[in-house]
Write a structure and sequence with these properties.
CATH class of the largest domain: Alpha Beta
Number of strands: 23
Largest sheet: 7 strands, mixed
Distance between the termini: 69 Å
Bound molecules: NADPH dihydro-nicotinamide-adenine-dinucleotide phosphate
Strand content: 15-25%
Length: 463
C-alpha cells in the first residue's frame, strides 16, 4: 500500500473544511489543512457573521424611531462607520482564532498558503514551494462573488466582500441583484442612512421564495424608502467628475451614486486549482461534480460546500463535512440530506422559510390548503410602525402534511429554525392544531390558523 504524508489533506479553511479537518484530526488521523486567506472562510470573514452584525447596526435607526411610542425620548443620534468596521473586525479576529485553535488542539497541521493539486494524491504548497501527498483529499475552497465582466465599468463596482470594508459609508448606493445578498444589503445600507436603489432583472425580488413573502417584503422595503427597480439591469457604469459613479440602466434611467454593488450570485473557486491535473470533473459554472456522498469522479478526492454549488449555505457545508467524515473515516457511508433545508433572509422585515412554496407545492400535489395570516405584530402597535407580518402554511389536503412554512416579520429566522423540525419530521396540520399557543407571541399564529384561507387545486387557486 502506498504511504502518504497525510491521511487527509483539506484544501480550504472555511466552515466545511475546518469541520472536516478538526473531526478527522481528533480521531487521531494525520490531517493537514491549507487556507490561503484567513480561517473561517466566507461565513466568518466576509459573509454571514459580519452581515448579521451589520444588520443589527442598521436596525437601530428604526429602534430609535419606535421608542417614542413607548414613552422614550431619544436624543440626537449619529452613526460612525469606522467604529462599526473596527468592532466587526475585532469580532471576526476572535472567531478566526476559535477556528484555528480548534484545529490546533485536534492536532491538524495548519498550512497558510494557496495550494494546488499536482495529481490525485499530491498537493503543491505554493508559499513553501514543496509538495506533500495524502491518501484522501477534500476540496472545500468555497466560492466568490460574480464580477459581471460583460458589464462596461464592472471594475468600478464592488461586491459584498468589499462592502464589509469600505473606507467610508456611501451617501447613495445602487445594488444589482434580487437574491439574498442584494436584499440584505439594501436593507443594511438603507438602515444606516444611505440612499439605496435595488435593481433586479426579474418581476419580483427573491425568485426562490414564496410569492406572498416576496410581494410583502417588496412593499415593506419600499415603505421604508428603499427604491426597487424591477425588470431592469445595469447597462454601464462610469466614473464622473468628483469621483461619483454614473450608472445607466436598461430602462434608459441614469443614476448618480457613490457605489454600485453587484450581488448577482457566487461562483465556485475552482480556477487554477489543478483539478484537471488530478482528473477531477467540473460542471458548467466550474463547480466540482460529486455523487451523493460528496465524492468526485476521482475515488480519493471529495468536495463539499459552495465549491460543489449544491446549496450555498454554511450549515449545509458543515453537514456535508460531517457526512464526509462518517463516510470516509468512520465506516458509516452517509449521504448529506439536503431536503427541506430551512433558510432565512436577514432583510428588514426578516424572512424565515422551510419547505415548499405555494407555487412549488401546487406543481407536485393535487390539492393544497393554504393558511395565511397578515397582521400587525404587537411590537408595532405602540410604536405606530405600519409594518405587516405574514405567516403562511402550505398543507397537502390529502395527507394533511405541512409542506411549507413561510414567515415575514421580526424573528422570522428564529421561527424557521424551529419550524424546520416539525416539517422535516413530516408532521400534519392536525399536529400544529393540537399544539398549545405561547401567548402573547407573534409565532402563536402558526398554531392558531384553524381554517384554510383558500385552496389550490391542480395548481389553481379555488375558493
Ligand atoms: P442569489 O442566487 O441568491 O441571487 C442572485 C441574484 O442575482 C438573483 O436575483 C439573480 O436573478 C440575479 N442575477 C444573476 N445573474 C444576473 C445577471 N447577469 N444580471 C443581473 N442579475 C443577475 O445569490 P447571492 O449573490 O445573493 O448570494 C449567493 C448565495 O449565498 C445565495 O444563493 C445563498 O445560498 C447564499 N447566501 C445566503 C444567505 C443567508 O442564508 N441568509 C445570505 C447571503 C448569501 P434571478 O433570480 O432572476 O436568477
Amino acid at each position: 500500500m502506498a504511504s502518504y504524508d497525510y491521511d487527509l489533506f483539506v484544501i480550504g479553511g472555511g466552515s466545511g473544511g475546518v469541520r472536516a479537518g478538526r473531526l478527522t484530526a481528533a480521531m487521531g488521523k494525520r490531517v493537514a489543512i491549507a487556507e490561503e486567506h484567513r480561517f473561517g472562510g466566507t461565513c466568518v470573514i466576509r459573509g454571514c457573521v459580519p452581515k448579521k452584525l451589520f444588520v443589527y447596526a442598521s436596525q437601530f435607526s428604526e429602534h430609535f424611531e419606535d421608542a417614542a411610542g413607548y414613552g422614550w425620548t431619544v436624543g440626537e443620534t449619529s452613526f460612525d462607520w469606522p467604529t462599526l468596521i473596527a468592532n466587526k473586525d475585532r469580532e471576526i479576529a476572535r472567531l478566526e482564532g476559535i477556528y484555528r485553535g480548534g484545529l490546533e488542539r485536534a492536532g491538524a497541521a495548519i498550512i497558510e498558503s494557496r495550494v494546488v493539486l499536482e495529481d490525485a494524491h499530491t498537493v503543491r504548497i505554493l508559499a513553501e514551494d514543496r509538495t506533500v501527498t495524502a491518501d484522501t483529499i477534500l476540496v472545500a475552497v468555497g466560492g466568490h462573488s460574480q464580477r459581471h465582466p460583460a458589464l462596461p465599468g464592472a471594475e468600478l463596482c464592488i461586491t459584498s466582500s468589499e462592502a464589509f470594508n469600505l473606507p467610508e459609508l456611501p451617501k447613495a448606493i445602487a445594488i444589482e441583484g434580487g437574491g439574498y445578498i442584494a436584499v440584505e444589503f439594501a436593507n443594511i445600507f438603507h438602515g444606516l442612512g444611505v440612499e439605496t436603489t435595488l435593481i433586479y432583472r426579474g418581476k419580483e425580488i427573491l425568485s426562490r421564495f414564496d410569492m406572498d413573502l416576496r410581494r410583502a417584503l417588496h412593499r415593506e422595503m419600499e415603505k421604508k424608502g428603499i427604491r426597487i427597480v424591477c425588470q431592469a439591469v445595469a447597462h454601464g457604469v462610469k466614473r464622473c467628475e468628483g469621483g461619483r459613479l454614473d450608472l445607466v440602466l436598461s430602462t434608459g434611467e441614469a443614476l448618480r451614486v457613490d457605489q454600485v454593488m453587484l450581488a448577482i450570485g457566487r461562483t465556485p473557486n475552482t480556477d487554477g486549482l489543478g483539478l484537471e491535473k488530478a482528473g477531477v470533473e467540473t460542471g458548467p459554472v466550474g463547480e466540482i461534480i460529486v455523487d451523493a456522498h460528496s465524492r468526485t469522479n476521482v475515488p480519493n478526492i471529495y468536495a463539499i460546500g459552495d465549491v460543489t454549488n449544491r446549496l450555498q449555505l454554511t450549515p449545509v457545508a458543515i453537514h456535508e463535512a460531517m457526512c464526509f467524515v462518517d463516510t470516509v473515516f468512520r465506516g458509516r457511508p452517509t449521504a448529506p440530506d439536503l431536503d427541506c433545508v430551512a433558510t432565512a433572509v436577514f432583510s428588514q422585515p426578516e424572512i424565515g422559510t422551510v419547505g415548499l412554496s405555494e407555487d412549488d407545492a401546487g406543481k407536485r400535489f393535487a390539492e393544497l390548503e393554504v393558511y395565511l395570516a397578515i397582521f400587525r405584530p404587537m411590537r408595532h402597535t405602540l410604536s405606530g410602525r405600519e409594518e405587516k407580518m405574514v405567516m403562511k402554511l402550505v398543507v397537502d389536503a390529502a395527507s394533511r402534511r405541512v409542506l411549507g412554512a413561510h414567515v415575514l416579520g421580526p424573528d422570522a429566522g428564529e421561527m424557521a429554525q424551529l419550524l424546520a423540525i416539525p416539517i422535516k419530521a413530516g408532521l400534519t396540520k392536525d399536529d400544529f392544531d393540537r399544539t398549545m399557543a405561547v401567548h402573547p407571541t407573534a409565532a402563536e399564529e402558526l398554531v392558531t390558523m384553524y381554517t384554510p384561507s383558500y385552496r389550490v387545486r391542480d395548481g389553481e387557486r379555488v375558493g
